[in-house]
């Protein structure tokens, strides 16, 4: 039986931390959908379409990964896709409480879809999209934190205001 997992998130933009989680999930599940969610409260830098494009570019080397976008409820999307699992990444302890809250809500909404947590590679424990954006704004070098296409997209974004 083929097992499908969804890696949901904002991915604004995708970092090597996200990629680490996606690659690990792709080793365990038959297929992984990376689902980009529109989260207005986070004041995104990139549009959902741009984020999808950057993810497609950055995951070309993983054959069982596809990218999608959605702006409704995650569990409705997961049900529609017939997903078996959600995969989320855990960095530092600070991720714990937030992840426990959304996991318990998601479980209430659909008990059949299990959430799995993958611990990131230690070198990405303190890496987040917001940190990357914060420093890239001031033209700091982030090429060791994000895929090449993202590095270029950040330069373009901040150059053109
Ligand atoms: P959200 O807005 O849902 O938190 P993010 O794009 O910030 O979306 O994160 C998507 C997923 O990737 C989350 O599970 C998050 O914990 C995980 N993640 C983000 N950065 C890293 C990282 N450096 N290492 C591991 N997982 C990460």
Show the helix and strand layout.
Blueprint: E1 4-9, H1 16-28, E2 31-37, H2 48-58, E3 65-70, H3 74-80, E4 85-90, H4 94-109, E5 114-119, H5 129-136, H6 148-159
Parallel strand pairs: 1-2, 1-4, 2-3, 4-5
The structure holds adenosine-5'-diphosphate.
What would your notes on this structure say?
The chain is of the alpha/beta class. The protein has a single domain (4-160), classed as HUPs (Rossmann fold, 3-Layer(aba) Sandwich). It has helices at residues 16-28, 48-58, 74-80, 94-109, 129-136, 148-159, and strands at residues 4-9, 31-37, 65-70, 85-90, 114-119. A 5-stranded parallel beta sheet has the order 3-2-1-4-5, sandwiched between helices. Helix 4 links the parallel strand 4 and strand 5 (114-119). The radius of gyration is 15 Å and the shape is globular. The model has no long low-confidence stretch (mean pLDDT 94).
Main sheet overview: 5 strands, parallel
| Strand percent estimate | 15-25%
Q: Tell me, briefly, the overall form.
A: globular
The CATH H-level superfamily is: HUPs
Helix vs. strand class: alpha/beta
In the CATH hierarchy, what is the architecture at level 2? Answer: 3-Layer(aba) Sandwich
| Small ligands present | adenosine-5'-diphosphate
Give the strand order, joined by hyphens, for the main sheet. 3-2-1-4-5
- Percent of residues in helices comes to 40-55%
| Total of helices | 6
Q: Indicate the low-confidence ranges by residue numbers.
A: none
Element pattern in H and E = EHEHEHEHEHH
How many strands in all?
5
In round numbers, the mean pLDDT is: 94
Straight-line distance between termini: 49 Å
């Amino acid at each position: 039986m083929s097992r499908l997992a969804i890696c949901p998130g904002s991915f604004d933009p995708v970092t090597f931390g996200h990629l680490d989680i996606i690659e690990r999930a792709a080793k365990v599940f038959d297929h992984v959908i990376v689902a980009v969610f529109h989260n207005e409260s986070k004041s995104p830098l990139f549009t959902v379409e741009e984020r999808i494009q950057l993810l497609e570019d950055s995951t070309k080397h993983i054959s069982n990964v596809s990218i999608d976008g959605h702006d409704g409820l995650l569990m409705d999307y997961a049900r529609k896709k017939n997903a078996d699992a959600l995969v989320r990444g855990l960095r530092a302890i600070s991720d714990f409480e937030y992840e426990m809250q959304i996991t318990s809500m998601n479980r209430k909404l659909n008990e059949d879809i299990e959430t799995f947590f993958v611990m990131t590679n230690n070198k990405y424990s303190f890496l987040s999209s917001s940190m990357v954006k914060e420093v890239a704004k001031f033209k700091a070098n982030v090429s060791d934190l994000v895929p090449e296409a993202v590095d270029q997209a950040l330069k373009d974004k901040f150059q053109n205001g």
